[in-house]
Amino acid sequence: MTITPEQIVRLSRNTIKKSFFEYFICRTEVQTKHFILSEFYPKETVIRSAIGGIETSLGSTFWEKISIEIAKNNGFEILNPKIDFKEPKVIPVEISNLLTEYKNKRESQNANIPLTDFTSALRSLLIKSFPDDINLSFKERLSKGTGVDIYLKKNSVRYAFELKTVQINAGSGPKFNETLMKWLIYDSLSQHKHKTAESFRCHVVIPYDPTSDSSWWSKFGGRAYPLDHKDLLLGEEYWSLISGIPDTLKYIKSAVKQLTDEGFSEIYKDSIHSSNPDSSIGIIQAMCGVKCLTNTKKTSIEFSTICDWICCKCGHKFSKSVKWFKGECSCYNCKTSLFNFS
Length: 342
Hints:
Blueprint: H1 5-24, H2 37-40, H3 42-57, H4 60-72, E1 77-79, H5 81-84, H6 93-107, H7 115-129, E2 150-154, E3 157-163, H8 172-194, E4 199-206, H9 216-224, E5 232-234, H10 236-243, H11 248-261, H12 269-273, H13 277-287, E6 290-292, E7 306-311, E8 317-321
Parallel strand pairs: 3-4, 4-5
Antiparallel strand pairs: 1-2, 2-3, 6-7, 7-8
């Protein structure tokens, strides 16, 4: 199974549409207000809140969703990182000492020690200290905050990724380094315990380069140290890996351009300025193939108020609240899914 550029565009469109719909439908206004700005610029602070919210929604979670869709359509098996990635309940002292040793080595200024050196040392230690078996038990679920966002498998190779924001904080490198080293330990201990020998790759991912001159590494690379280009995948380094197609980001951007040309952003314009049942009804009518028959101008409604609707495909009339559309709903008559994310 291989994915095509056309599929990448379609999957990107679907993911963007669904992300916007899920964020804005039945969105309630933020109750907390800035002490000064809400008085000086009340309208602008409402807009800022909405934009900030969708920006967060389109952060790592959005890239996770689109990554999984692309990988799935390119023949990857989608694994559950919380369950399938095994974390030992206790790490042997010998392994913990090795982690500390190599963590300090790698993080030393200008050391530039590759992560493969640690992997080789880890394998050697396992063979030397635990030649026959290792008395370990593993947690049922990966600990919260351990960091694996996406866990994939293809051709007997497993991949673990942690997706980060494009502008990482100063001093993030040591934390990223420790995370990758722990993942390598978890996987090595699991494989040693169960006597398997699969290939395993783990990376921190920056989904795209936000700089205008493609200078992410020169601007932020120091913050990522000791991670190098093999540890941290930036933009196309990541996307070409999971899609098998060069310039995958170009096709994702093409989806954005298509939606822009189609006026997609206009659907959510009212919701940027205010959040109320009327704006949600406008979204539903634009995205769900239905028309609201209730005159909301004459009747004050809430998100939970039952309204009358008609399916634009078969003409079937039904009564549901605005909140009902937040779920995976279909027309009772023609069974058509009431979502248009294609």
